[in-house]
Amino acid sequence: MTRTIKITGKGSASAAPDSVEIYLYLKAMDMVYDKAFALAKEQTEQLRAVLISIGFDKKDLKTTNFNVNTEYKEVKNKKDEWQDIFVGYQVRHNLKLKFPFDNDRLAEVLHHIATGMTDPQMDVKFTVSDRRDLETKLLISATKNAKEKAIVLCEAAGVTLGDLLSIDYSWTDINVFSPTDFSMGYNNSRILSVNEGIGIEPEDVKVADTATFIWQIQ
């Protein structure tokens, strides 16, 4: 019977953010479907025009979600009974803009969006452009950690670490965003114009994961 040792290695890696992603949420509503759809299209074209005016290509703005729903609200009728009343068609268009992180460029983009749109809703996240490089460092770290543990345990037990028999790793969706919280409130165009000179240094993107290894012991 082959004797084995099973070790779970814990890996970690970090990198300074070099990219910024702006998530924008557009919403249009009207009692008439065609009018709601036309308003949503107008909002999107307005946003693209703002971004093109500061050097972006129209293809830089990507749709992450597009949804059309019928909206209702509950009201009481003359019999004091609750009933659903149709209030209109709602079109939601969520978009993402990604570009290299630079404080001046970020301030410029946010300022133009805030002044060129009506009550823009958006989130700002900092990330890395080369996700694969960060994941590779993470896996190397987990592998080294597992082997170091295996060697220590084998030496303590008076046995020798043999051939690697198997590796068990499940590819998961790793969060590759900086924990830095960059909040954007409503009516923020005046705030942005004041804050253009403020330097932002987002925290490093930090990732962690595990992998399980089985070695033969001699």
Supply database-style keywords.
218 residues, Alpha-Beta Plaits, 2 domains, four-stranded antiparallel β-sheet, three-stranded antiparallel β-sheet
Polypeptide structure, described:
With about 220 residues, this protein is of the alpha+beta class. The protein has 2 domains: about 1-20 and about 130-218, Protein of unknown function (DUF541), domain 1 (Translation Initiation Factor IF3, 2-Layer Sandwich), CATH 3.30.110.170; about 20-100, Alpha-Beta Plaits (2-Layer Sandwich). Helices cover about 30% and strands about 40% of the residues. The chain contains 4 helices and 7 strands. Strands 3-4-2-5 form a 4-stranded antiparallel sheet, with helices on one face. A hairpin with a 5-residue loop joins strand 3 (about 60-75) and strand 4 (about 80-100). The protein is elongated, with a radius of gyration of 26 Å. The model has no long low-confidence stretch (mean pLDDT about 90).
Quick structural overview:
With 218 residues, this protein is α+β, with helices and mostly antiparallel strands. The chain contains 4 helices and 7 strands; from the N terminus they run ββαββαβαβαβ.
As a whole number of angstroms, the C-alpha radius of gyration is 26 Å
Helix content: 25-40%
What is the averaged pLDDT score?
A: 90
H-E string:
EEHEEHEHEHE
SS-derived structural category:
alpha+beta
* General shape: elongated
CATH topology of the largest domain: Translation Initiation Factor IF3
**Model regions low in confidence, pLDDT < 50 over at least 5 residues:** none
Tally of structural domains = 2
**CA(first)-CA(last) distance:** 12 Å
Strand segment count: 7
Question: Which percent range describes the beta-strand content?
Answer: 35-45%
Name of the CATH superfamily of the largest domain = Protein of unknown function (DUF541), domain 1
Biggest beta-sheet profile: 4 strands, antiparallel
CATH architecture of the largest domain: 2-Layer Sandwich
Highest-level CATH class of the largest domain: Alpha Beta
Order of adjacent strands in the largest pleated sheet? 3-4-2-5
Tell me the number of helical segments per DSSP (H or I, 4 or more residues long): 4
